[in-house]
Design brief:
The protein is of the alpha/beta class. It has a single domain, classed as Glycoside hydrolase/deacetylase (TIM Barrel). About 40% of the residues lie in helices and about 15% in strands. The strands form three sheets. Strands 1, 4, 5, 6, 7 and 10 form a six-stranded parallel sheet that branches. α4 runs parallel beside α6 and α4 crosses α10. The two termini are about 30 Å apart. The structure holds zinc ion. Zinc ion binds next to loops.
Length: about 270
C-alpha cells in the first residue's frame, strides 16, 4: 500500500469512527478533491429522499404530508430491499475521492424542524438501524409544534446529522447583503452551539438556489448543499445535489419505483 493511500484510509477511519469533534474538523481536509466536471460526469447519483410533515393522521397524503404508518411502511420497504442509509460526510467523500459506500446507499433527509422529527421519525429510523439528516430552520426552535434545542441535541448525539436550512426559510435567491449573516452565519453558529459539532451541510428552502447563494455558502464553510429535483449544475454538482420529495400516497413499492427512475444508476 502506498503512503498516500495509507494516509487516506487512516483519515477515513478517523472520519467514520473517530470522536465527533475530530470528524467535523477533518471534513475539509481532502487533498486533491475531484474537479466539478469529474463529479458531474460521474452520473451515478446516490438517492436522496426529502420528507416534510409526518403526523399520526395528517388528513391528506401528498408531497408535504405523510402518515407515521406510511413512513414506517416506506422505511421497511427500503430495509427489506437492502438499502443502507449513509450520512452527508460519506456522500461528500464518495463523490470527491471514490470512498467506498455500503451496498445500496441512500440518504434520508427531513426538513423544517418539526416536533414529529424527534417524536415519530427518529423512533422509526431506529427500528431499521437508519440515520438521517435533519435540515433545521432555527427561527422556530422551541416553538409549539417544532423541536426544542434539547431534542435537536439528542438527535445529533444519537448519530443523526443536523444541517442548515436558514433562519426563517426565505427563497435564498432573494437574500442580499447583511441578510446572509442572519440567514446562514447565525443559524449555523446556533446549531453548532446546540450540537457541539460543526454544521457542514445545507438544504435550500424550496430547493431554490443560484450562483450567488453557492458562493455565499462556500465562504461560510458549507461542504455541500441539497436542492430538490431540479437539474444538477455541471459547474457546482456538490452544491446542487438532488433530492426527491416523497409523497405520503406512495406505498413502499411505489417509492422504490420512483426512486429508481429519478436516481437510475444506483446499485
Ligand atoms: Zn424547508
Amino acid at each position: 500500500m502506498n503512503t498516500m493511500k495509507f494516509i487516506y484510509l487512516l483519515s477515513l477511519a478517523f472520519i467514520f469512527h473517530g470522536p465527533e469533534k475530530e470528524r467535523a474538523m477533518i471534513a475539509f481536509a481532502i487533498k486533491d478533491p475531484r474537479s466539478a466536471q469529474a463529479i458531474f460526469n460521474d452520473r451515478r447519483q446516490i438517492p436522496v429522499l426529502c420528507y416534510h410533515n409526518i403526523r399520526k393522521n395528517p388528513g391528506k397524503e401528498d408531497l408535504l404530508w405523510i402518515s407515521e404508518a406510511r413512513l414506517n411502511q416506506q422505511m421497511k420497504m427500503l430495509s427489506d430491499s437492502g438499502y443502507h442509509t449513509i450520512l452527508p460526510d460519506q456522500l461528500y467523500y464518495y463523490v470527491n475521492t471514490g470512498a467506498t459506500l455500503p451496498a445500496k446507499p441512500i440518504l434520508l433527509s427531513f426538513d423544517d424542524t418539526h416536533a414529529e422529527d424527534f417524536s415519530m421519525v427518529a423512533p422509526i429510523l431506529a427500528r431499521y438501524g437508519y440515520k438521517g439528516v435533519f435540515f433545521t430552520m432555527t427561527v422556530c426552535i422551541g416553538k409549539n409544534g417544532f423541536m426544542t434545542a434539547a431534542e435537536i441535541k439528542t438527535l445529533s448525539d444519537s448519530g443523526h446529522i443536523i444541517g442548515g436550512h436558514t433562519w426563517n426559510h426565505p427563497n435564498i435567491t432573494t437574500v442580499k447583503g447583511k441578510e446572509w449573516e442572519q440567514q446562514i452565519d447565525k443559524p449555523k453558529l446556533l446549531l453548532e452551539k446546540i450540537t457541539g459539532k460543526t454544521v457542514n451541510y445545507f438544504a435550500y428552502p424550496y430547493g431554490a438556489w443560484n450562483d450567488t447563494a453557492i458562493m455565499e455558502l462556500k465562504k461560510r464553510g458549507i461542504n455541500a448543499a441539497f436542492q430538490l429535483t431540479g437539474k444538477q449544475s455541471e459547474k457546482e454538482p456538490l452544491f446542487t445535489i438532488r433530492r426527491l420529495m416523497i409523497s405520503g400516497s406512495w406505498t413502499g413499492v411505489e417509492l422504490l419505483k420512483r426512486m429508481e427512475k429519478i436516481f437510475p444508476k444506483n446499485d
